[in-house]
Amino acid sequence: MQIRAGYDIAFQCFQETPMVLMLSIEPARLGDLLSEHRIEFSPELAARDYVDMFGNTCTRIVAPPGLVEIRNDFLIGDSGLPDEVAPDARQLDVGELPDDALIYLLASRYCDTEKLSSLAWSLFAGIAPGWQRVQAICDYAHDRICFGYHHARSDRTASEGHEERIGVCRDFAHLAVTLCRCMNIPARYCTGYLGDIGVPVDPAPMDFSAWFEVYLDGRWFTFDARHNHPRIGRIVMARGRDAADVAISTNFGPAQLVKFSVITGEVVSEADQVSRAA
């Protein structure tokens, strides 16, 4: 399957403003690209990429005063398969974990494990470790929080999301990640594109999405506490401990977001359209 994805984002800068952008797809998917993947700036700006401590591609710019527009539009190939489900995947003891997974057991800015540890053990200690326990955590976060774009708040922690019971996709992910870490399951936050492929179309404006991955049986598996259902066509942009590590823009000075448009969806040929209509 082919997926078209991209964005058109603009900032009003009130002075020369250095920025770090995290708007590139993960390096592992570069081989799937079917068109050029290039961040375009208006006005044209000098930009350079670097790789952060989590393996994410970051772009550095210095935005001039005034309106700065950032765009991308690309095609990428995808297997068309939903997220993998592995009910027998086992939870590793902490002593078995690789060194680079240990950071995903620790508290972070939005994943305040110390405030939810007792709750987590009271709810999930009796559930078989491994896939079943992670799914139970995912179910709990999915049921606990009511989704709504008007509930968005940039500084909400996992424990606050749990108490307030409202939020957006990042809040679902933060809560699930935190509860997993409380149960000694490495969990990391993911952000990227997720279109309405194989599901009813959401009438709300499209946005980047957030989900999470857990380390079971020696590898990472995808879970999504907001949708709580295997989905097709995820395109990861970045991974980290929580949303603070994967912000689409970090501005070192005053800048106002004045335009934000995201697209992602399956490219359906005319022949496929006729076939599906038949």
From TrEMBL:
The keyword Protease applies. Gene3D superfamilies: 2.60.40.2250, 3.10.620.30. It holds the Pfam family Transglut_core. It comes from the Bacteria. GO terms for biological process: proteolysis. One of its GO terms (molecular function) is peptidase activity. This is Transglutaminase-like enzyme, putative cysteine protease. It comes from Bradyrhizobium erythrophlei. Residues 161-227 form the Transglutaminase-like domain. SMART domains: TGc. InterPro entries: Papain-like_cys_pep_sf, Transglutaminase-like. Keywords: Hydrolase, Protease.
